[in-house]
Design a protein that fits this description.
Rossmann fold; alpha/beta
């Protein structure tokens, strides 16, 4: 099994999620009227650990960070399509009866098996990490989480994948398969409205927005609120690589104002650490 190598930006992301998960678990555990059961969900969980390029050593991934939080979550649902990585997670979690590991497509597992376990009427609440490597997530997952009102999400908005494969200067040059991936991630083709506009030319050709990264990320933020129904979606945090290019935006969405305030504070805390140092 190949262990993923990660840069500084990924380590910062792991710290952000760990800090929030700690605050989330503390708050939910303390609530007694009514008592709530809180669930941790990791849709692209990986093997449980990574190799840090900056530290030159192994570091825990998001599942291990979550498993180490006190007070603990009531349940853990860890998903990875790679069977070897999933088996490594099973080995790490051996003996823990409150952990379930899945080695199937998270789009199916979340909608059919995991989200139904986090119902409002059952006094369940969930924190879900949606951290795909690219355009591998279906909008139906995000939309369902928002409509349920019980699930908060961190989401990797893969702008680099979009720019490389979909958001071309000439939209007619995009491969149909890449368009299908983008439409599945977005839920429809309305993303085009944020990226392209009619140019000031005789034929009215479509031209790419000068600042398409900001335009499409803000359009997605609006979509999380207006379509998925999340009440609170802070400005996403841009995560940059060693060349100062934005790899992805880290989104957070919730229906609780206190959650928004906590995440904005955490984003501010780590904003200076997302620097181009590899």
């Amino acid at each position: 099994m190949k262990i993923d190598e990660i840069g500084n930006w990924t380590e910062v992301k792991l710290d952000i999620i760990k800090d929030y998960a700690q605050a989330y678990s503390t708050i939910l555990h303390a609530q007694t009227k009514p008592a709530l059961q809180h669930v941790y969900i990791d849709a692209f969980a990986g093997a449980g650990l990574h190799f840090s390029k900056t530290k030159g050593d192994f570091v825990p991934g998001s599942p291990l960070n979550a498993l180490g939080i006190t007070p603990p979550f009531k349940e853990y649902h860890l998903i990875d399509l790679d069977r070897d990585k999933a088996n490594n997670l099973r080995e790490i979690c051996r003996g823990r009866t409150n952990v379930t590991v899945y080695d199937r497509n998270c789009n199916d597992v979340l909608l059919k098996e995991v989200f139904p376990k986090v119902k409002y009427e059952d006094y369940k609440r969930g924190l879900c990490l949606l951290d795909p490597y690219g355009l591998h997530l279906d909008w139906g997952v995000v939309n369902t989480a928002g409509q349920m009102k019980t699930i908060e999400i961190f989401l990797n908005f893969p702008i680099m994948d979009m720019n490389m494969n979909v958001l071309k200067k000439n939209p007619d040059e995009v491969d149909p398969q890449q368009l299908a991936r983008m439409n599945a991630f977005w839920g429809d083709e309305s993303w085009r409205e944020a990226v392209y506009e009619r140019g000031r030319n005789f034929f009215g050709w479509l031209e790419k927005n000068v600042d398409s990264n900001t335009a499409i990320s803000q359009a997605f933020r609006k979509r999380l609120k207006k379509v998925a129904g999340f009440k609170y979606v802070p400005d996403p945090m841009p995560m940059r690589n060693s060349n100062n290019a934005i790899l992805y935006y880290l989104f957070f969405a919730s229906n609780k104002p206190v959650a928004k305030n906590i995440v904005e504070s955490i984003f501010k805390k780590y904003s200076k650490e997302v620097v181009p140092n590899g």
